Give the backbone structure.
Amino acid sequence: MSDAATANEAVLNKEYLGPDSLRDELHAGLRDEQVDLNTIKEYFTPSAWRALQTRMAALRQCSWLCGVCAKSVEDVRSVGCDRCLLWFHYHCQGLAGNPTQSLYFCSSCKRA
Ligand SMILES: [Zn+2]
Ligand SMILES: [Zn+2]
């Protein structure tokens, strides 16, 4: 069930969503960010809304983060280190363009 369907159901039943409504499958749908969270916010109680946001933040941390600045590497040119397997923004590794080596080692792995 999508979050929108869950919200609709809550409206139909004239009840607000509590923290218990925060099922895992709800979050899989929310994670793709197709959903404007603010459109469903009004259907959550304040405590449920906070619980949702906390879990959203935890979910988003599962996406790839730069090993230097800990920001998402999505939509930013980035490279994976073949030794530590972390991802890094080009600019966080001081790269001006594509690495020329077939294997890339980040600056801390190069130092090691
Ligand atoms: Zn970075
Ligand atoms: Zn590395």
Summary: The first helix runs from residue 3 to 12.
